[in-house]
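Hi R.,

Quick one: here's the FAD-linked oxidase sequence you asked about.
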Amino acid sequence: MAQSIIGDERIELFRASVHGDVVRPDDVDYDDARTVWNGMIDKYPNLLVRCRGTADVIHAVEFARENDLRVAVRGGGHNVAGTAVCDDGLVIDLSEMTGVWVDPDERKALVQGGATWADVDHETQAFGLATPGGVVSETGVAGLTLGGGIGHLRCKYGLSCDNLASVDVVTADGEYLTANKDENEDLFWGLRGGGGNFGIATGFEFDLHPVGPDVATCFVLYPGDRAADCLRAYREYTSTAPNEVSTLTSTGIMLDEELFSEDVLDDLKIGFLGCYAGPPEEGEDVLAPLRAFAEPIADFSGTVPYTEFQQMLDDDYPDGMRYYWKSLYLDGLSESAIERICYWADAAPSPLSTVDVWELGGAITAVGIDESSFAGRHAPFLLGVEANWEEPTNDDANIGWVRDCLADMRQFSDGSVYLNFPGFLEDNDELIESTFGSTYERLVAVKDEYDPTNLFSLNQNIKPTA
Ligand SMILES: Cc1cc2nc3c(=O)[nH]c(=O)nc-3n(C[C@H](O)[C@H](O)[C@H](O)COP(=O)(O)OP(=O)(O)OC[C@H]3O[C@@H](n4cnc5c(N)ncnc54)[C@H](O)[C@@H]3O)c2cc1C
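And here's the predicted structure, written out as tokens:
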């Protein structure tokens, strides 16, 4: 249990200065407030503030600075490393700031810093519009966008951060700034890929695109003994598919009694998931080859509402289960890379775990490498290794499997990683600089300007010079 190191009087003054709830270790909702999505994370902050608006965020930042507190910032609470919460210190929680306002004529959405993708999709789809999010709708807009944002519309419309028109930020000294192409350009550049290093984003302005209401989708599964053949066919398919198509593939047992009959439930499978960002009737034809790689075990493909597709995986990642995810950008899908993907998928200790390959390219590569701080535009594929399991006694086996897989797969990569799938925070200390490569120095310069004392350090941390 966290001990309060701040006097009661100061806390009461702080409580009076904000509209949101201030939660202390002896409050009844303390455990609820400190709980995040990943059941592996069990942190005990001194204090949490559930901000209701920008003023609360400014007061919270000032309070943290004046009392020299460690700070964690919570958006959707879905970072696998649990960076939304800390031991000791103050959690600045934006998860009640979920407002979304759409301007259908200008095709823009204003999104508060604690919204989830479900909040965004709900409002934007009322106008037949969307902006690229992630593939699970319960994930936070803030953490995902600031780290890049790889979702179902990526090859057509780019990353989430590529669709940012403007961001409102509370910096470490409590200043409220707007960052976009005309104002505070260096901050805007850093925010698009550099994570939560530079301040607390209270509002995002996104560009919107016509999508839906229905989209053609593909979700087809084949037997695991055909995985290598399917991955070869996938490599060919992705080399010619139009940008409207964004797909990923997962190999694992994917134990799910609702999806699979008993005779294949415990078998290794390979699945292909994606959608077509264009007219559904055209999309069904373009996606058809993905459904003919072999004889499917199951095929759930079809034209569905975009919001339904966006939520399709939500139930597969329940709150409180144990998760350890890491990633690696791949140079390509060579024969030996395919062989090792199949090997590691088969070696997974948990039947809920998968080895995933995300297709990149398309609109992601249309943005120049120097235009934003995001570090993964060079790669044709992203490898995601997801350990998902239930029992704490299986922690070592699952974490070890992810680490061993990553170590082996480095032979097919320049070693750079997608920092939004970070495993544990400390796993990445040495990888952050090498992943950002030539942009790292520029990120340090932005950090020096906006957070020289590293108030925002619980993230994929860019260390300031001082
Ligand atoms: C089930 C699941 C599915 C996912 N799917 C995808 C996917 O399809 N594509 C993809 O790209 N990623 C995906 N991710 C990874 C995701 O991008 C990261 O986990 C991201 O950190 C989640 O953001 P959050 O706001 O929910 O996280 P939080 O845990 O709340 O925050 C993570 C970090 O982001 C920063 N942060 C949060 N809010 C703010 C804010 N308002 N201002 C400044 N900094 C802030 C802080 O540094 C914080 O520590 C997925 C994760 C999960 C758990």
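The chain has a mean pLDDT of 97.

Cheers,
M.
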